[in-house]
Amino acid sequence: MANTEWKKLFNNWENNDFEFHFQNVLRVSSRRQLSLYMNMKSDLLSSTGMCPDFRGLAELVGFSYMDIKQFESASDPTAVLLDTWNSSYHETATIGKLCEMLAFLGRKDCITECQQCFEFDMNKYKEVTRANPVQVPTISQSLIKADEMSVNETDVITVEDVDTGQESFYDAFVCYSSCDLWFVMQMIEKLEAPPHKLKLCIVDRDVIPGASMHTVNAKLIEDRCRRIIAVISQNFLKSSECDFQLKFAHSISPGSRSKKLIPAIIEYCHYPQILKQITACDFTKTLVQDWTWNRLAHAIVAPFDFSSYSSDKNEMKNIHMKLPLVRRISREGQESQE
Fold first, then answer.
1. 187 shares a domain with 49
2. Are residues 110 and 188 in the same domain?
3. Model confidence band, residue 9 (pLDDT cutoffs 50, 70, 90)
4. pTM
5. How many separate domains does the chain show?
6. 195: domain CATH number?
7. Residue 290's CB: how many other CB atoms inside 10 A?
């Protein structure tokens, strides 16, 4: 099947239809249909010398060996692949490029079986976009005051800021590569649900667009979040944004003296030099992952010092002086016996 022959299956489509991003077009049902075919691993290689399944598709997109190993661990690797493709290589994440890669892998069966689903989705998407055009005649349905046209970009930076009309604060800011969203989703399930019920700041979920990325991240890390969790992986080390967040977090907590920075290792990699003196949560130790999640949760809510356990300063002073006092009395007792 030539690279352009598959287009004959979609005779009703216009040329620009193939440029639509599949993240906007494809329904869950269509993705599931595609997963039924692509999730099954094949021991045979295609005529192009590639695995004719989700692994080969991931290679064509540009993912590394370690990325593909992470996809393999998911219950629906094709679905995770599509989401990560859209976030990491958004420009190529089009429905036309998806079909072109399937054809290159020799998976005409996938395109044929998904054809009706894709066409249905495309028609629905075009109907919706025609009924709700992006360009609207007015700026907003709300009244805008002149002084509202100039705002401080660090005042309103999260979805909750907009919903509540006041600054929102979080237990921890999660610093991660977009390729590691699969682990961040696990973290949300583990830490935001009972019994921990923590409040995490996830950039892709909580931060509204429009402001300087570095300025917003710095504001959240320094003023809005008690802790910073760094999800350490090969992808993390390649990310310039993660590098900025990590170095900024370390600058306000050098040597982790305030214990704000908590590394969470999710794969074997070259450990950053600035983290070597900081105790980490190692999620590569699969046998003790339950313990690791529990340690991470307690590290997030742990007080910065013991003074938060009591509001009585005299009581805390007595606690701190108790051990030296016992030693002094003991020495005096020994001298009197002599």
1. no
2. no
3. confident
4. 0.51
5. 2
6. 3.40.50.10140
7. 9
